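Interim report to the steering committee. The following record documents the input for VanZ family protein (177 residues).
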Amino acid sequence: MNDEVDLEIGDFLQRKKRRKLIVTLLLLLAWAGMMAYMSAQPYTEQDLRPMLRGFDLSWVERWLGWVNFTYASSEISVAYRGPAAFLEFFIRKGAHVAVFATLGFLCIRLLTAWSMKMVIRAAITLFIVMTVAAIDEYRHFLHPGRTGLFEDVVLDTVGGLIGMGVYVIFYKIKHRK
């Protein structure tokens, strides 16, 4: 009797693990497809400045007018770019981080299906994130109207590391003994 119950519980856990693997794989494939689609769009189709100009952006200069730095040999400041382009810069770079954080999270979660140490999963995920980031920026470099930047590869990698870190925190909390 106990053997039958143990077998049923083990069977249930295997099905649950398989379902988690399939869902994660499907989410990862959908996410990668969305990334490829967005990456193939010209900048003119992603330009947020016209929409942002429809808002009162006087607060940007008042609160952030002091911000001035260089990113990929370009000056980033309200005075140089204007309020809409200044905000768009941060929205676009924030999107880089969020997109690659999600990629990192999904990749490391998918790798939990295989029995390997977390450090190995993290190394494989980091390699995948960096490779996808480099390919993405190379595609931008080749696409007219887009700019491929090494700095964006670094930013994407940081995003991936954030996603991996979030997953590891959730994993450690769930598997606390």
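The mean pLDDT is 91. The committee is asked to note this result when reviewing the revised timeline.
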